[in-house]
Every structure is written in C-alpha cells, then in structure tokens.
Amino acid sequence: MTSRITRITLSQHRLPLDPPFPASWDSCPRRAFPATIVRVEDSEGRVGIGSGDAMYGFDDYRDLFLGADPLDLARHSAVLENLNFHAGRPWPLDVALWDLAGKILGKPCWQMAGGRSSRVRAYASSGVHRSLEGMARWAEHAVARGFPALKVRFGRASLADDLAALAAVREAAGEDIELMVDCNQGWRMPWDTQAPWNADEALAAIRQLEPYRVYWVEEPLHRGDYAGHAQLRKHAGVRIAGGEMTRDAHEFAALLAHDCLDVYQPDVVCTLGMEGARRLAAQVESHGRVFTPHTWGNGIGLAANLHVVAGAGNAPFVEFPYDPPEWTPARRDFPLTQPIDIDAQGFVELGNAPGLGIELDETVLVSTSSTGSRYV
How many Å is the maximal CA-CA distance in the chain? Predict the structure, then answer.
C-alpha cells in the first residue's frame, strides 16, 4: 500500500551570534541566526526535513498535503507554486518532500534529480565588508582551504572602495583562482530605497572590473530589467549572473526568452523548490547557459541546492557561504549534526545516503527553540 503524508510540523529556532555577523547587505550586525525547520512524516514513520523561508501563513494550507501520496512531487510542486502567491515562499516544504521521497525510494536526492554526479565543486562566498588587509587575508585563507573560486561582495561607500577590495583579493588569491563580483542590485532589503543601477551605470562599472579578470558579475541590474540585462550581455564582455530573488517560473522563462543571463541563480528554498529547479536547470542548459543556485541559508538549504546541481546541472561552481570567523560552516549549519564542508580540492561530496543525506541535531534544536524568526 502506498504511504501517505500524515503530519507536517514547523518549528522556529535562533542561534545567538557572538561575535555578531556584520552582513554587508544589512544595516546592522546580525546578533542571531534564525532557522525554520519543516518536517513531513508519512504513514510508515519516515520523516523528511526542509528549511529556508519562515513559512509564515502556511498553517491554513496543511490540508492540501495531508493524506496525499508523498511521491507525487510534481503535484506538490504545482500546489506550492499556487501558495507562492497566497502565503509567501513555501518552498522549504518541497525540500522536505524530496528528502522524504528519497528515504522512501532509498535514493539520494541527486540521483532523483538526474544522477549526474555525487559531488559539486564550491566557491567561497564572502559576506563581510572587511578592510583591504582583511579581504586579502580572507582570500589567502579560502585558497589554502581548497576553494577554486571566490566571490567578492560590492556595496561599500563608493565603487572605488569596492574596486580596491577586489584588487586586494586578486593580488592575494593569485591568477589561477576565479573571482566573481556580486553587485547586489537585483533586490533590496526592506530599509534600502536607493535606486538600482541602470544598464549604462552597470556597464561603466563592469568596464572597470576588466583588469581583474572577473568570471561573472552578479546582479548588476534589478531582476526585472530584461532589456537592460540583454544590453549588458551584448556589450559587457563578461558573464552576467542573476535570478537570486526571481520568484516565478514565468519570470525565468522571460529571462531566457530575452537572453538576459549567462548564469541563472535561483535558491530552491526561496524559489521553485527542488522540483521546479530541476526543470529549470534543464531549460537553462538547453539554452547553453549555466544553472548554479544562490544559497545563503543554513545547511539544509545548501544541501538541497547542491543535490539539484549534482543531479540536474552542469555548474562549474556552487555558492558556499564562507567568511570566518563571523560566518563558518558550524554557525551556518547549526541545526545539523555535521556541518557541510569541502574537501582539499574544493568539492562537496554528497554520498549515497537516501534523501538529502543530512541529520538534525535534536539537542541543539531544543536549546535554540524560539517563537519567531528574527536576526536580532
């Protein structure tokens, strides 16, 4: 007899951060790291886990899944796509359903997604606006750890300051390491009312990156500026990346139709889920472009993104948030018994365990239990 979904639970957790994490995109240092854990249980007692968005508003829609076949992933994805309008971003549930399906089938999620590889190479993604000396030390450390590529985040007081940080990283990392730049123009924090660059401003900035041999420029424009992105791709001479906060499948279809991006970066716990991302990866590849997700949440979301890429994509690198001492795998992955990390060559090995291949640390989850999802 086919198993059925019997229970869906959500719990909130917050890890105190001391020292705080001064995220470059936020207006004040983050003193806590929240995580919402989603658990889906079937009639045989198996449990799938997901995490990502806080899932506020989901409680009214549990009945759409209870009693359903947990393996009907396409149906669940379609329901979640509808809920994406009605109740925020419910995609952590899709991740939990994939984890549960893997446990039912006895397969790792990367095999379910396409089965291309069990490992993915990572790039170190910075999150702190350090001094020039601090950026150089970060680059040296990340290269010594085995990362083959590094991403520098712009957004300092001036473009000149950003370029100086990029120059410091290039000098410290050497010429054999790939560098990416994240301009963070594609979305805004709630408090940030500054207008994003237009295509001419972005192109002028990109021209100044040329001496540093940048592998891609991420989010140089607002995510909805299709004409501007197409213009940049035509004239910039460097790969254009984006899609981190693009919400719907039809928006990605528009980006593809307008030939906006070289690199597509949806985060499966914020957009499309694992099922939708698997389909998008095939579409992106059919257009000769690269699918490699954004991923700046905890290790559950990181694992979900890695499994989709390993199974369905052909990315040269996948984002790996890494900016110690404020942002480490241990902090990022606090809900898990074992943090996700790279090997000496910069690869993350996903293995053959069913589902996502990760396990919750129930003791830590009890000690970090919270009533909300806040960074302060």
Answer: 64
d(CA 166, CA 149): 13
- Tell me which residue of 37, 95, 99, 40 sits closest to 67, measured CA to CA: 40
Specify the pLDDT at position 324. 96
Distance CA 135, CA 153 (A): 11
Contacts of residue 123, defined as CB under 8 A and 6 or more positions apart, other chains included, come to: 147, 148, 149, 150, 151, 178, 180, 317, 318, 319, 320, 346
Cβ proximity of 306 and 269 under 8 Å: no
Q: Which long-range contacts (CB under 8 A, 24 or more apart) does 341-345 make?
A: 342/122, 342/145, 342/146, 342/147, 343/146, 344/146, 345/121, 345/146, 345/148
Position 173 scores a pLDDT of 98
pLDDT digits (tens, 9 = 90+) for 182-191: 998 887 778 8
154-177 residue pLDDT tens: 999 999 999 999 999 999 999 999
Residue 337 has φ and ψ, to the nearest 5°, of -70, -25
Mean pLDDT of 338-354: 97
User: Beta strands 47-51 and 263-264: pairing type?
Assistant: unpaired
For 194, which DSSP code?
P
pLDDT on residue 122: 98
Distance CA 312, CA 305 (A): 11
Distance in angstroms (rounded) separating the CA atoms of residues 192 and 335: 30
Task: Read off the amino acid at residue 133.
Answer: E
- 115-130 as b/e: b if 16+ CB within 10 A: eebbbbbbbbbbbbbb
Angle (nearest 5°) at CA 286 between 283 and 289: 90
pLDDT in tens, 288-341: 999 999 999 999 999 999 999 999 988 999 999 999 999 999 999 999 999 999
Average pLDDT, the chain: 95
pTM of the model: 0.96
Tokens of 81: 């796509």
Averaged over 10-19, what is the pLDDT? 96
What are the φ and ψ backbone dihedral angles of 304, each rounded to 5 degrees? -60, -45
278: buried, middle or exposed (CB in 10 Å: 19+, 13-18, 0-12)?
buried
Task: Please give the Cα distance from 23 to 29 (Å, whole number).
Answer: 6
The crossing angle, in degrees rounded to 10, of helices 273-286 and 91-105 is: 90
